Amino acid sequence: MNEITIGFIGLGLIGGSIAKTIRRIIPEYRLLAYDIDTANLKLAQTEGVIDEIYCEINHEFSRCDFIFLCAPVSDNCENLLLLKPYLKPSCILTDVGSVKSDIHKKIMKTGQEKMFIGGHPMAGSEKIGYQNASAYLIENVYYLLTPSDSVSETKISVMIKLIASLGAIPLILSFSEHDKVTANISHLPHILASSLVNYIKESDNNLGIMKTVAAGGFKDITRIASSSPYMWQQICLSNKAPILTALKGYIKYLTQIKKELEQSSKDNLYDFFNSAREYRNSFSSASTGPIKKSYEVYCDIVDETGQIASLAGILAKNNISIKNIGIIHNREFEEGVLRIEFYNENATSRAIELLRKYHYTVYERS
Ligand SMILES: NC(=O)C1=CN([C@@H]2O[C@H](COP(=O)(O)OP(=O)(O)OC[C@H]3O[C@@H](n4cnc5c(N)ncnc54)[C@H](O)[C@@H]3O)[C@@H](O)[C@H]2O)C=CC1
Ligand SMILES: O=C(O)C(=O)Cc1ccc(O)cc1
């Protein structure tokens, strides 16, 4: 088989993670990248992730069998025209942007429908840039695909195969359905997280007491407020109408709960929390959710030198890789515990079994 060549236009958190995943799973593929930030490109080349780096979009990309547009959404739209003269007809052009309607409209304008299949991995984080990219970010998560109307079935099945081979779960949607869904389950939550943080900033006293005592719940639901403001500015502007509809629907809920509280409607307040609890508990705890599951366990550990090293040694001897490790202190674990994160479900369950065998107290959190 001829060598497959894949190009990346933008190599930050998502582009970098897809490139690292390809390098991990299909190391023989040739990877090319362009990014406005040359430091990213140089790092990726030094790490052996990208084979060829370019400081402009040029004829080198005409060798690509796939091109992933991985810049913020409106930059992806602008890069389409710059790429157009170089793409071979058999190339599959895709993107990873969080919004799909604008890029599909631009694709129709530029006459590139026969090669475009929109893409959107439902995984990510509040972190920014290639330095935070991970070869496991898209493992076992939904990867939404929005093929153009005139792209061939062959191209669609090749794309589905590639995404599945990278360990993600391809799911086809129309671009308008995509934007409605993501407005509700991704864009609205990001707006809520940021508005909650802004509200607390405004309400706190000058010693920052709220900020100091904010507990797990606040931190859980506002983590995504640390995301890139530039990326979210672009997402909001690009998906304005569906986000406004979602906000309107959500504000209705807030108004309703405000009324029920004002009226001390005991039963309605109970129903409000109970219906949310039941529906939230019905979400799959398997990794295929809108939010990627993190494989973490918590473990009591004696506060003595060498304790972390001996636990890590047990895992290493059994070929279990640790993704992240560190002591945490919060109210749930009053004494402080060791938080250990693994790469996948299998490693997590093997580690739990092993550590318990060595008489460690291990906690799992759903
Ligand atoms: N961050 C997340 O959790 C997720 C982001 N996305 C989408 O992925 C895309 C990329 O986001 P991230 O990787 O998170 O952002 P990022 O900020 O980590 O990376 C963006 C990269 O694009 C480069 N870039 C900016 N303008 C460019 C241009 N005109 N041409 C070429 N490169 C350019 C930047 O230098 C940077 O390396 C966005 O469209 C976003 O909507 C999709 C799923 C999750
Ligand atoms: O960090 C998280 O939990 C996210 O929600 C990340 C994210 C951001 C943007 C997307 O389009 C998809 C996923």
Automatic annotation (TrEMBL):
Keywords: Amino-acid biosynthesis, Aromatic amino acid biosynthesis, NAD, Oxidoreductase, Tyrosine biosynthesis. It comes from the Bacteria. InterPro entries: 6-PGluconate_DH-like_C_sf (IPR008927), ACT-like_dom_sf (IPR045865), NAD(P)-bd_dom_sf (IPR036291), PDH_C (IPR046825), PDH_N (IPR046826), Preph/Arog_dehydrog (IPR050812), Prephen_DH (IPR003099). It is an enzyme of class 1 (oxidoreductase). Residues 4-291 form the Prephenate/arogenate dehydrogenase domain. Its EC number is 1.3.1.12. PROSITE patterns: PDH_ADH (PS51176). Pathway: Amino-acid biosynthesis; L-tyrosine biosynthesis; (4-hydroxyphenyl)pyruvate from prephenate (NAD(+) route): step 1/1. It catalyses: prephenate + NAD(+) = 3-(4-hydroxyphenyl)pyruvate + CO2 + NADH. It holds the Pfam family PDH_C. GO terms for biological process: tyrosine biosynthetic process. One of its GO terms (molecular function) is prephenate dehydrogenase (NAD+) activity. Belongs to the prephenate/arogenate dehydrogenase family. PANTHER family: PREPHENATE DEHYDROGENASE, PREPHENATE DEHYDROGENASE [NADP(+)]. This is Prephenate dehydrogenase. It comes from Anaerosacchariphilus polymeriproducens.
